[in-house]
Structures are given as C-alpha cells and as structure tokens.
C-alpha cells in the first residue's frame, strides 16, 4: 500500500484555470476529418455531412478550442483549395501523409463544425511551402467583414459574417526534417516574425503562436526556442510544445512516469522563454501553447503507422493511419499529463490533445457505423468538466517510485482547483502503482468542507487487466464511483486502486 498526504489552501493559488487548456486537434490526416467528424451519407450526418454522434461526444468531452488543419498537413496545404463550390475543388496529393486529399472539407465546413461543437477555432497557416502573403490572404478572407476581393469571396462562398478567428499558429514543427519546407531556427524565426508583422497590420489583436521544438529530444531543443523568440518576441504571444509518450519499449514504469518528463519539458521552455525576455529587456511574458500532446499505442497493436516509406503505400483517400485502441494504462498516463498541464496553468495557456477522432483519438468511429469513447476520453472529460476557478498549489508528500527513463516520481500524482464562486474544490489524482492501492489523506486548510459532491475513478475494470480497452463491440473502461471517500471536518481520506486516475469534488465554504 502506498501513501500520500496532500495539503490544499485557498490562499495558495497559481491563477485561473485557462479555458483553452482543454483543447483538441483536427488534422486532415487519416480518418480524423473524413469519416471522423465529416461523413456525408452517414445515418448520423446533418445536412452539411457533419456526424452528429461525433459532435455530441465532442461536447461531452468539454473541448474548448480545436487546432486545424494540421499538423504536418498544413505545410503543404493551399487553403484556397478547400473553399468554394465543393464540386469544383481540386483533388491533391498530400505529401505529409501520402494521402489523396479531396478538399471536400475545408475552412467553411470546419468553422461550421466548430460553431456546432461550441469550440474556438485555432487556425494554422502554411509556413512550409508558403508564407507571408498566404497568411495575410487567409486572414483577410476569414476575418475581414467585406468590401475587399478576399472578404467578398468568403461572402460569395456563403459566409456573410466574418469568422473572427483570434488564435493562429505560425506553421507547424518547422524544425523537423520530416516537415515540408522545414527550416533552420533563423530562417523560421525571420519568416514567423515577418508573417506575424503582416498579420498584425490587418488585426493587431490576434493571438499568435510561434513553433517551438517538435519535441524535447530534438538536437536543437532550447537553442531553437531561443533563436525563434529572439526574432519574434514582441510579435507573438505563445511558443509551442509537442509531445507523445508511449510504452513502446515495454518499460511501463517509465511510461507511467511520463508526466515527470512533461513537467520538466514545460519548465525548460518557461525558463528558455524567460531567459530571452531578460536578455532582450522585454516587459511582456511569452506563454506556452502545448498544441500537440498525447500518448501513442503499445507496440504489440497492429496500427497502420503514421509514417512509412511513401513507395509502400498507394495514394488513398483518408487511409486509416494511426488508429488503435487505448488501454487503461494509457488512460492513466493521459490523466497524469492533464495533471501536469493543470499544475502549469500559470504558463501553459493553451493545450491541444492530438487528435480528436480516430487517429490517436479520444473518439473512434467506424465508417458508416458507430462512434465510441476511447479510454483516454474519460480523464479529459472529467477534468474539463470539473477544473474550475483557481488552480491550487498542492503541497504533496507521496511515496516515490523509480523509472529507468525519467528517474523518481511520486506514486500519487495530484492537481487541484478551487472554485470560490460555486464553493467547490476538485482534486485529480493518479496512482501510478501497478499492483498496490494508495491511501491518500487531504487537508483542506482554510476551507469548511461540506460534503463529497462526486468521486469517480478510472481503473482496471472487473474481469479485465491493464490492457483492457474500448472497442466498437464493447466499452468496459470508463469512470465508476470511487467508494470509501471519507470527509471529517477539513480532512478527506480516500484509497486509490492500483493503476487509477480519479476526479473528486468536495463542496466547500470559506472557513
Ligand atoms: O498529430 C500527428 C502529427 O504529429 C502532426 O501532424 C505533427 O505535427 C506531429 O508530428
């Protein structure tokens, strides 16, 4: 049995929970768009071909912002191909994913979907094959009310009102040799600065994200961020981070400690951005946009790989790449990654789980068939629903575990929020232990606890094991009631089952 003691105090806060922390990502990749969110002719499709079942699940998730249209895809994309009469739109080769892009779905369809899903649009511009002029044109097309050739083109394409997209990504993973048109840090930094400057001439109040390193293991990590921010510091608002963890090598202890690495990654980028701030005598602060994060599937699953030599695959429309069944272990790791993001919500202001549907998806679909919730759906939905108000600085003393890749980790991983307006404290707790449950005691200092409003846990289902997953046929993994949560005055005690992630909300009044 592991043990942890947590103290929460409403005076010790990090700042408000950023609304955009619960973002996701829709890329023209695999079956995320086609037969994912969009499938004309599906029994659940609306008059625009948008799948209502997927829309409903997106709302249930509590997703707040969605990045679009890529990803690697955007670096070879002409946004103009995806607007105008659908029957006139060109079919193109998408080199990023060796796929045939029909362009039946484009900007207007995505904005319509986002509106129905009640999510904000986070639009990426192509800085791989294109640049300043394309970004300016897209911005004018999307956001200018009318009276110019581009804005009137939007209106003639059926959108009288501007889309008013506020949040823009300046390219995607521009340091990666796999990226169409990848660049050195100086080349990208200059281009991002020029693009940002031109976009701000159209609208000074946009929020702009510059590309950070594609991942922590890039050889130029740190140096890339420094150079890019030296070029762009006063012109952008955020620097991006991307990460995908997996237990591909079978080292599950390390996999379960992934969020320790995520904590360090975030803190490293904060330190780097702040160092550029200090050297440049800048008053403003650059925040972080963790605009791709997730786990990937275990090695033993037969998943069509994201990338493979182009010659081995034919040019197909929406090939089912990167689809698999997430299991209990992966859901617990996703829960700890959410905890890490929330713990750093003072600097991570945007986060996009990648991706929403099918490919590494929170949601899976069958073409012509059902849609269902993957295991990783549940921690996302639970935290997006309960994390309100202020982020609490939790003081945690936990038993520790060790892992080959990331060193020591708390067995019990914690994040917490305090919603003064509605009088509640929410705790998000993971037990990384594979075999032992964990006894947790929480002191709610300075608060008058009135009762446990809800306590739900995701863990190994009865009769299952840590590899249990949800499929089209059966969905045994989800949140169940966490029994045995005790509240005595300011003291909350509970036991987390082995390998679990829980969300517990307590009603409180100021003491
Ligand atoms: O999310 C899948 C891909 O992973 C994205 O297109 C790319 O940006 C990242 O490498």
UniProtKB/TrEMBL annotation:
Homohexamer; trimer of dimers. Belongs to the glycosyl hydrolase 51 family. SMART domains: Alpha-L-AF_C (SM00813). It comes from the Bacteria. Keywords: Carbohydrate metabolism, Glycosidase, Hydrolase. It comes from Auraticoccus cholistanensis. Pfam families: Alpha-L-AF_C (PF06964), ASD1_dom (PF22848). Residues 291-500 form the Alpha-L-arabinofuranosidase C-terminal domain. SUPFAM superfamilies: (Trans)glycosidases, Glycosyl hydrolase domain. Its EC number is 3.2.1.55. GO terms for molecular function: alpha-L-arabinofuranosidase activity. GO terms for biological process: L-arabinose metabolic process; polysaccharide catabolic process. This is non-reducing end alpha-L-arabinofuranosidase.
């Amino acid at each position: 049995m592991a043990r942890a003691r947590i103290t929460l105090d409403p005076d010790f806060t990090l700042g408000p929970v950023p609304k955009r922390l619960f973002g996701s990502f829709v890329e023209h990749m695999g079956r995320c768009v086609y037969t994912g969110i969009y499938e004309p002719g599906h029994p659940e499709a609306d008059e625009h071909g948008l799948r209502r079942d997927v829309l409903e699940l997106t709302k249930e998730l509590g997703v707040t912002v969605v990045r679009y249209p890529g990803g690697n895809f955007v670096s070879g994309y002409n946004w103009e191909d995806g607007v105008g009469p659908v029957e006139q739109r060109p079919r193109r080769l998408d080199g990023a994913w060796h796929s045939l892009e029909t362009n039946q779905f484009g900007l207007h369809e995505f904005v319509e979907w986002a509106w129905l899903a009640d999510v904000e649009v986070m639009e990426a511009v192509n800085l791989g094959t294109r640049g300043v002029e394309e970004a300016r044109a897209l911005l004018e097309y999307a956001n200018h009310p009318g009276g110019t050739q581009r804005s009137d083109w939007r209106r003639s394409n059926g959108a009288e009102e501007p889309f008013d997209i506020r949040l823009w990504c300046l390219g995607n993973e521009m340091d990666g040799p796999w990226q169409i048109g990848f660049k050195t840090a100086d080349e990208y930094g200059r281009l991002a600065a020029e693009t940002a400057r031109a976009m701000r001439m159209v609208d000074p109040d946009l929020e702009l994200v510059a590309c950070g390193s594609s991942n922590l293991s890039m050889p130029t990590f740190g140096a890339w961020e420094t150079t890019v921010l030296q070029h762009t510091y006063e012109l952008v608002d955020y620097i991006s981070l991307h990460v995908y963890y997996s237990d591909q090598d079978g080292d599950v202890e390390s996999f379960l400690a992934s969020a320790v690495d995520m904590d360090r990654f975030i803190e490293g980028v904060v330190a780097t951005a702040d160092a550029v701030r200090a050297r440049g005598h800048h008053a403003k602060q650059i925040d972080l946009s963790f605009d791709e994060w997730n786990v990937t599937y275990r090695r033993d699953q037969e998943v069509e790989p994201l990338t493979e030599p182009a010659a081995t695959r034919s040019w197909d429309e929406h090939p089912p790449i990167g689809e698999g069944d997430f299991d209990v272990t992966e859901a617990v790791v996703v829960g700890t990654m959410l905890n890490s993001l929330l713990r750093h919500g003072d600097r991570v202001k945007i986060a996009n789980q990648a991706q929403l549907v099918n490919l590494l998806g929170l949601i899976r679909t069958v073409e012509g068939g059902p849609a269902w919730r993957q295991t990783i759906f549940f921690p996302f939905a639970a935290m997006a629903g309960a994390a309100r108000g202020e982020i609490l600085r939790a003081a945690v003393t936990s038993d520790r575990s060790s892992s080959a890749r990331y060193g020591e980790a708390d067995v019990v991983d914690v994040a917490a929020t305090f919603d003064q307006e509605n009088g509640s404290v929410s705790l998000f707790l993971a037990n990384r232990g594979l075999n032992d449950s964990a006894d947790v005691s929480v002191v709610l200092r300075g608060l008058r606890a009135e009762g446990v409003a809800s306590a739900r846990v995701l863990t190994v289902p009865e009769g299952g094991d840590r590899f249990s997953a949800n499929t089209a046929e059966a969905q045994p993994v989800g949140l169940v009631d966490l029994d045995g949560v005790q509240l005595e005055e300011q003291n909350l005690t509970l036991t987390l089952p082995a390998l679990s992630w829980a969300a517990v909300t307590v009603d409180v009044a100021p003491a």
